[in-house]
Amino acid sequence: MKYEFIVVDAQNYFFYKKKDGKYIQKPLINFFQKILFPYLKKKGIKLNEIISDYRQPRPGDSGNMCHPGDWGYESVIPMELRKSQWIKCMNSPIWVRDNIGLKNKKPGLPYPDSKRFGRWIDKNIGGTKKVSPIIFGLTIDCCVLSTIQEFRWRGYKPIVIKEAVAHSNGSEKDKEAVLEKSAISWWANVLSWKDVKKLLN
């Protein structure tokens, strides 16, 4: 079995918080920078990345962030680790828009395009019989969960790296509740980083 890494919303807006006029790293980025990135570089493994263009208009969601061209939109993933990039505009990755990711263009209304997302998967991830996607990032109770579900519905058996996800409120207790006490075990196999490395070796 082949494994493909898919990281969700690894952008400055989500990985930093502003405090006293300064941007402070959230704890999860330490795992990325000190453990995950060095390992991937050493093994020559690249990431498939899903990021967000959350400009308005977004009916049903009042959020207005991650504007293309702004610091918050930029990815925390080093360019040398990036294999491919998909841009979404709602929690689920199948939602796109006209002018998505273009900083000098007015964004259109979000709409679902399952076929377009499927073509990206076919090109960069591979088929269900040969690949298990390893999905992680932000957040396990929202965008990561939506991504896991989309892959599961397509017949994949996703894997989640326990140490590489966070809850939207930052609580480790709530993250554990989602990973261990919710229905996520139906959608994905939750593994520790140690166990993921065993699969890769």
Quick overview:
The chain is of the alpha/beta class.
Which characteristics define this entry?
single chain, 201 residues, alpha/beta, Rossmann fold, six-stranded parallel beta sheet, two-stranded antiparallel sheet
Q: In terms of per-residue confidence, which ranges show pLDDT below 50 for 5 or more consecutive residues?
A: none
The main β sheet shows up as: 6 strands, parallel
Give the CA-based shape.
Answer: globular
* Fraction of residues in β-strands: 25-35%
Continuous helix count = 7
Kindly identify the CATH topology.
Rossmann fold
Tell me the total number of β-strands: 10
Counting structural domains, the number is 1
Q: What is the chain-wise order of helices and strands?
A: EHEEHEEEEHEHEHHEH
The CATH class turns out to be Alpha Beta
The value of Rg in angstroms is 16 Å
Query: What share of residues is helical?
Result: 25-40%
CATH homologous superfamily assignment? Isochorismatase-like
Order of strands, main sheet, comes to 5-4-1-8-9-10
CATH architecture: 3-Layer(aba) Sandwich
Average of the residue pLDDT scores: 95
Explain the overall architecture.
A hairpin with a 2-residue loop joins β2 (16-19) and β3. The chain has helices spanning 12-15, 28-43, 114-124, 143-153, 172-181, 184-187, 193-200; strands at 2-8, 16-19, 22-25, 47-52, 82-88, 95-96, 111-112, 131-138, 159-166, 189-191. Helices cover 32% and strands 25% of the residues. With 201 residues, it is α/β, with parallel strands linked by helices. The chain is built from seven helices and ten strands. It has a single domain (2-200), classed as 3-Layer(aba) Sandwich (Rossmann fold). The mean pLDDT is 95. The strands form three sheets. A six-stranded parallel β-sheet has the order 5-4-1-8-9-10, sandwiched between helices. The chain has a two-stranded antiparallel ribbon with strand order 2-3. It has a two-stranded antiparallel ribbon with strand order 6-7.
